């Protein structure tokens, strides 16, 4: 097909631009490979409403990250120990690089484009491997605004530790060599706590060109069910979202649409038939598309864009239990030295009960979701093919065929499962 007739032609698109007065909000967390922490991530996102989530050491099941809604965009490093999640369907990120220990993407704010990096370096790994991967991104984007969320497991007094180690010195040399700024506050509460051990391994860095922007960095009190805490970074630059308008066409007003369209359709039909060259045909096409868009706007309501919602298995009882666990942790932190150990034991026992309740609520929610399905090849069947079903949840699938298909799927190493051949026959 000759595409030359479309050159220099601006066809109308049904695109709307939506700006928010809220600053760009970035959430950072090391999930410590905890299943409960991964399950609760969506609920936390619905409360804090971040634009971007930087994740390290997330829980992996069958080489897939479970518990992520379909509407979220996910970008992972090659070893899947670092990831960037975009909860908002309105944000349009561009993937820049995927390396073994890090992933980088770019988003457009109202003021400037910004590159976001998530990285992880295990204490048993040479930190220079991860630093070199980050270095390659920085070198390829000179003078651009970059923000880095990374768990590099290095000790240095500049980000909270009481002493320095060789790993921390190497990280500091890397920061100075690349003209980066440490956003962490040295007097902040620990970002990591396990039993009596505390630390500040989670770093947030930014380029020199971004330091002029108003940046706020805070370690949150939100329960994460990981031995790391959530970190919230806000940048004073709003996000401008472009999205395609989608109309509610299932609720009537079709006659009104036809009446509006019918007034001009015969004129356009004659205009298309009379077209003698590509320019006249393009003009008629543009006029037709514009007429259809205007008729839809006058006849139908626009579908609302999806917001970050709580998972459907989340209950009021879980919300109350979460607040109780958070209160017990706060009480333990503020207790006198002589009582602190005992209070932490009470907190840990309640936290273990809370994790069990989350697992139970998730399984019950999946059971209700499958038993209420009216079609055997509905959402529950598609969820099985997305490998978001745990083996313990397979018995709740509605039909024997679905259960068998899902069992076979969990025994394979395929990242996506197509319909089996021959197509299963189900008697309804």
UniProtKB/TrEMBL annotation:
* InterPro entries hit by this protein: Endo/exonu/phosph_ase_sf, Endo/exonuclease/phosphatase
Q: Where is the Endonuclease/exonuclease/phosphatase domain?
A: 114-231
Question: Which GO molecular function entries does the Swiss-Prot or TrEMBL record give?
Answer: catalytic activity
Name by which UniProt lists this protein: Endonuclease/exonuclease/phosphatase domain-containing protein
Q: Which organism is it from?
A: Araneus ventricosus
């Amino acid at each position: 097909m000759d595409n030359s007739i479309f050159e220099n032609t601006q066809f109308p698109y049904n695109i709307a631009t939506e700006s928010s007065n809220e600053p760009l909000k970035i959430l950072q967390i090391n999930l410590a490979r905890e299943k409960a922490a991964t399950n609760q991530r969506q609920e936390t996102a619905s409360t804090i409403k971040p634009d971007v989530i930087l994740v390290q050491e997330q829980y992996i099941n069958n080489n897939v990250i479970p518990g992520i809604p379909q509407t979220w965009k996910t970008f992972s490093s090659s070893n899947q120990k670092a990831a960037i999640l975009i909860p908002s369907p309105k944000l349009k990120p561009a993937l820049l690089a995927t390396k073994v220990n890090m992933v980088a993407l770019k988003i457009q704010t109202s003021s400037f484009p910004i590159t976001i990096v998530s990285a992880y370096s295990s204490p048993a790994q040479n930190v220079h491997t991860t630093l070199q991967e980050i270095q390659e991104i920085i070198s390829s984007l000179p003078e651009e605004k970059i923000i880095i969320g990374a768990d590099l497991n290095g000790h240095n007094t500049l980000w909270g530790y009481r002493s320095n180690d060789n790993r921390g010195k190497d990280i500091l040399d890397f920061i100075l060599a690349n003209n980066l700024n440490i956003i962490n506050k040295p007097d902040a509460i620990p970002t990591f706590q396990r039993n009596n051990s505390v630390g500040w391994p989670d770093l947030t860095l930014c380029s020199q060109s971004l330091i002029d922007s108003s940046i706020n960095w805070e370690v949150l009190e939100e329960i994460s069910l990981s031995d790391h805490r959530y970190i919230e970074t806000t940048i004073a630059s709003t996000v401008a979202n472009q999205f395609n308008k989608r109309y509610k066409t299932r609720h009537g007003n079709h006659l009104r649409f036809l009446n509006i369209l019918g007034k001009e359709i015969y004129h356009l039909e004659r205009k298309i038939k009379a077209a003698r060259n590509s320019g006249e045909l393009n003009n008629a096409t543009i006029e037709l598309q514009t007429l259809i868009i205007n008729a839809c706007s006058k006849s139908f309501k626009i579908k609302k864009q999806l917001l970050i919602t709580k998972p459907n298995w989340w209950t009021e009882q879980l919300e109350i239990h979460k607040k109780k666990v958070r209160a017990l942790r706060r009480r333990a932190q503020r207790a006198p030295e002589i009582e602190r150990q005992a209070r932490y034991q009470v907190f840990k026992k309640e936290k273990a009960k809370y994790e069990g309740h989350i697992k139970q609520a998730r399984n019950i929610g999946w059971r209700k979701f499958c038993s209420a399905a009216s079609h055997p090849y509905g959402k529950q069947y598609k969820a099985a093919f997305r490998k978001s079903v745990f083996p313990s949840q397979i018995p709740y699938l509605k039909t024997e065929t679905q259960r068998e298909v899902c069992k076979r799927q969990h025994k394979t190493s395929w990242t996506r499962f197509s319909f089996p051949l021959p197509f299963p026959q189900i008697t309804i």
